[in-house]
Amino acid sequence: MGTLPGFPSILTAATSVGLCYDSIAVCRHVHLALLLLLALPAPGHATVWQRQRADGTLEFTNAPSASPNWRAVPGSESRRASARPREHAPTASDMNSVVWTRERADGVVEFTNLPPVGRRWKVLFRIGPGKASAVRGDSDLVAPRDTSLARYQRYDDHIRDQQAYFAIPQALIRAVIRTESDYDPHVVSSAGALGLMQLMPATARAMGVTNVWDPRQNIMGGARYLQTLAKRFCRTPTAGRGDGGGVAFVCSDDETIKVLAGYHAGPGAVEKYGGLPPYETTHTYVTDVWQRYKEYRRREAALSAWVGAAPMALR
User: Fold this and answer.
1) For the domain that residue 161 is a member of, what is the CATH number?
2) Are 114 and 192 members of one domain?
3) Is there a single domain that holds both residue 38 and residue 120?
4) Which 3 state secondary structure label does DSSP give 38?
5) Of the candidates 10, 58, 141, 273, which lies 20 to 30 Å from 313 by C-alpha distance?
6) How many whole angstroms separate alpha carbon 94 and alpha carbon 32?
7) Which domain holds residue 63?
8) 33-37, 186-190, 288-292: which is most confident
């Protein structure tokens, strides 16, 4: 198969020999205000209280208050010791896209999701629209449950087929699936993303997916969307010619980052900021996918080198 517009072809030897795509130790960096508050050193005040003001601002404190409307965050004392995330992390429905923080003179740390008035406020983190509004894995409506190692090879045929149709490297598709759903086709995120490649409903419809729970349709729809984004953001010319006889393009590393950011936060956000949007959730997502993509490509290259050096009788 020749190179198709959008991505370079990959080593085909990896498709003919069993290649393990098991879990990779990739750190998940979660920067949510409440998670940070639970980790703050505050001897004697492990419980976290919260209240919602009339203007919609969500306030958290780790110091007891006599003011009305404060209530303890359930389980905050026990979760603080283990530094585990909340069962339901804040999403775009709970706050605006920017969260500010400051520490008062009495040691109380304040957070607000509305533009603050006063000094010493600084931006803590930003979240984006759609899928970028939530931290994947910490607030899923339906979390991954499939723990079988066989899941990493269960969809190999579909992953190979999508490359023939859409020219997306298999390593990239595997990295996206691993990050999005951990190879469980039943995952539903708190943002409403669905299935193996976590397609938003509108995206699934636009990509011709009629059943997001069908693994093949979900993979094909996600690959088609990645190809659409590649055609939008990849402008690195290659020596070959496109299908129409014009200049063919492939994705540089920087352009692949834009494709992944667009898959997570939407192409409009990438164009608005001229690259990776300043959303903590998107930064975490792109970092995870990119690290896995590089590792999978390294494994493919190692396998290809081994196959090339092996005697013909062993191939």
Assistant:
1) 1.10.530.10
2) no
3) yes
4) helix
5) 10
6) 12
7) 33-84+93-126
8) 288-292
115 and 246 together in one domain: no
Q: Is the pLDDT of residue 156 over 50?
A: yes
Are both 24 and 39 inside the same structural domain? no
Q: Is 55 in the same domain as 143?
A: no
pLDDT tens column, 209-256: 999 999 999 999 999 999 999 999 999 887 665 555 556 678 999 999
Residue 108 neighbours by CB under 8 Å, 6+ apart: 61, 62, 63
What's the pLDDT at 227? 96
CA pair distance 275, 30, nearest whole angstrom:
21
Q: Do residues 111 and 58 make contact, with C-beta atoms less than 8 angstroms apart?
A: yes
Residue 209: predicted pLDDT? 97
Residue 6 lies in a domain: no
139 and 78 part of one domain: no
Mention every residue, 6+ apart, whose C-beta is less than 8 A from residue 59.
50, 51, 52, 53, 110, 111, 112
Which DSSP helix (H) or strand (E) runs through 302? helix 280-309
Band of the pLDDT at 38, cuts 50, 70, 90?
Answer: very low
Any domain includes 179: yes
90 falls in which pLDDT band (50, 70, 90)?
very low
> Residue 142: helix, strand or coil by DSSP?
strand
Dist CA 20 CA 18 (whole Å): 7
Pairing of strands 236-241, 122-126: unpaired
Lowest mean pLDDT among 16-30, 67-81, 232-246: 16-30
pLDDT at 282 over 70: yes
Question: How far is CA 159 from each of CA 18, 23, 156, 221, 292, rounded to the nearest angstrom?
Answer: 14, 17, 5, 11, 16
Phi-psi region of 280 (alpha: psi -120 to 50; beta: other; left: phi over 0): alpha
Give Dmax (Cα) for the chain. Answer: 80
Query: Does 273 lie in the same domain as 169?
Result: yes
- Please provide the size of the chain in residues: 315
Q: Which amino acids are annotated catalytic?
A: 180
Question: What is the rounded CA–CA span in Å between residue 282 and residue 90?
Answer: 15
